[in-house]
Amino acid sequence: MIIVGAKGFAKEVLEVVRELDQLKNLVFYDDISIDAPDRLFGQFPVLRNIEAAKEYFLKTDSRFTIGIGNPFLRKKLYDKFEAIGGVFTSTISPSATIGSFEVQINDGCNILPGAIFSNSTSVGKGCLIYYNSLITHDCCVNDFVEVSPGATLLGRCEVGFYSQIGANATILPDVKIGNNVIVGAGSVVTKDVPDNSLVVGVPAMIKKQLPPLQF
């Protein structure tokens, strides 16, 4: 497997891969950081260009996951690596708690230790669900969403594409979060939030309009 990225969040994905006992042939990819080592932790090779990644997919393992947190970058990297033959793959920690009924986790998600999914929950492609976050019954999280540590999504809420839920934020039941929304850390969202908004506070209020994402 390739973990795309070789710093920060990629190191957290590494630990989940270790928990899953999938370290064989594991490599990282970083074509930006000039100070990245040739081998991360002295053990895992770091690929430096897309040609090397394509060769790896052809000869070694077609799987990749993304070790970068930003939803916009995750989507762009997904497109880039799928285009050269990669298979978008989830890494789900064995110490996450996953409900037994009607739980859907789509391709390329990174689920970290301590995350909890109730029954009847749906998480879209390429999502990042951090430590000790809670997604309760009938919630829907759309593609390429970041749910930060300790965040709580309560019954029947929905989070739109490319949105970020800050650490220890709470989304109340039946609330709909739009696309490309940032919910500040510790905020409590009590009502629907439109696309391209930054909301913070208790209760959360719109503080800024964000530029629409351009792919």
TrEMBL record:
Pfam families: Hexapep, PglD_N. Residues 2-81 form the PglD N-terminal domain. The active site is at H137. The record marks D138 as: Increases basicity of active site His. One of its GO terms (molecular function) is acyltransferase activity. It comes from the Bacteria. The keyword Transferase applies. Substrate binds at G69. Keywords: Acyltransferase, Repeat, Transferase. Belongs to the transferase hexapeptide repeat family. PANTHER family: ACETYLTRANSFERASE. This is Sugar O-acyltransferase (Sialic acid O-acetyltransferase NeuD family). It comes from Flavobacterium cauense R2A-7.
